[in-house]
Amino acid sequence: MKRHLISAADLSRDDAVLILDTAEEMARVADRPIKKLPTLRGRTVVNLFFEDSTRTRISFEAAAKRLSADVINFSAKGSSVSKGESLKDTALTLEAMGADAVVIRHHASGAPYRLANSGWIDGAVVNAGDGTHEHPTQALLDAFTMRRRLVGPDAGLGKDLSGRRITIVGDVLHSRVARSNVHLLTTLGAEVTLVAPPTLVPVGVESWPCEVSYDLDQVLPKSDAVMMLRVQRERMNAAFFPTEREYARRYGLDADRMAKMPEHAVVMHPGPMNRGMEITAEVADSVRCTAVEQVANGVSTRMAVLYLLLGGSEPAVATNHARTEENK
């Protein structure tokens, strides 16, 4: 792997499979009475969040702590950023504190890239979402969830998603999750189709390695996984569709539409959900919906990312006598 994780497009097929396989090892740790490894003991991970977040921030914090790293949570609200401090000065402060990795979420697309290539800090940089650009660890946990559901936890080791047909539905225009998933899933061999109103399809989408459709009902019967995206009203400054009711009628997933999917197919959602808009409560609470699994899998996947960026060549999950002696 490279030194930083800024974009899903930076990952080769082998990089991605290595992360997914390592995440499978990390998931087994979650089944233990004591869910902790000594792998990153003495390392410091900073969660640098300039945007609100629940799942991502807590997930990265849990991942780092399960690997025995020291965690510093930095929120822009209540910090010197609210007084006008620049990203550079914030980064220099973190460097002075000895940060080994910085997990950054920022409202500006490109901020993690700037941080990683600025020379301001020596540690690894992980993009936890930048503007409407990318969210690579969300794509990794989504791929991990798909591989577990569609291939199997043990049978899937070393395998990708070749031949699987993934449909991503909704507000693609504002979705960093959609962009990262298109890059990663195609790298893993999947066939991706985007379904959205014409007003919520990005300019230049024809250069993306995927298909585009405006008819959800036509695509559902041949989908192995259907990912519903949240309509990001906070990023909208115009009317992108007539009404919420009209959007739900054409692009929402309800029980009738779910019945058109193959029996093995799963429903995904990166959260948070707008129940009743892009997905009905009946579908969200069904056994076919993986939304809660995705949250749990996010911890394992982010443990794998932090381990591979910071852990060196030690085994991810140690069971040998030497590790036992070390922990005494």
TrEMBL record:
Q: Where is the Aspartate/ornithine carbamoyltransferase Asp/Orn-binding domain?
A: 163-309
An example GO biological process term is: 'de novo' UMP biosynthetic process
Annotated keywords: Pyrimidine biosynthesis, Transferase
Please write the reaction equations for the catalytic activity of this protein. carbamoyl phosphate + L-aspartate = N-carbamoyl-L-aspartate + phosphate + H(+)
| The protein's enzyme class | transferase
Any Pfam family matching the protein: OTCace_N
Record's protein name: Aspartate carbamoyltransferase
